[in-house]
Amino acid sequence: MKKVKAVPLDEKDKAILTCLINDPRISVADIARELNVQRDTVLYRIKRLEQRGVVTKYHTIVDPQALGLSMFVLLLIKLTPVSGEEVQSFVQKLVAHKNVTHVSRLIGIYDYAAQVAAEDVFVLDSVIVDIKGMQPGIIANIDISNVIDGLKTDDFSGLL
Fold it and tell me: CATH for 64-146?
C-alpha cells in the first residue's frame, strides 16, 4: 500500500463524502439541495476530493451469488524468498486473473490474501491450479477458506 498523506476535511467535505458513499449515483444538484449549499461549491469540492486522492473510484458492489458465483473463497498465500521483480510479476498476474476479486499484501505468516469467486468447486479448482502455475516455484503455501457469508463490506463512512 502506498503511503498517502492524510487530507484534512472540513464538515462540508465530510457531508459531501457521506452523500457520495450513501449513493454514488447522486447528482451534484441533489447533494447541493440536501446540504443547502451552492451546486458550484459541491462540484468544486468533489473535484478537489478526487484530485487530492480522497475519492479514487465510483463503483457498484455486485453480489457474486446473483451472478451464479456460488463459491467465494479466501486464499492466503505464502511466497518463497524471491526477488522483488518476481513478486511484482506474480502479483500483477494475480490481480489480472478474472476470478480474483480482491488482493491484499499482508504482514505476518502469509504474504498475500486473494478473494476468489467461482461458479462451482470445479472452476475453483481450475482457478487455484491457474494461480499455482502463474510463476512456478514462487508459492510456498496456499491456505483456502470458504467464505460462507460476507458480514461487512465497509464504506469508511463510520470514520468520517
Answer: 3.30.70.920
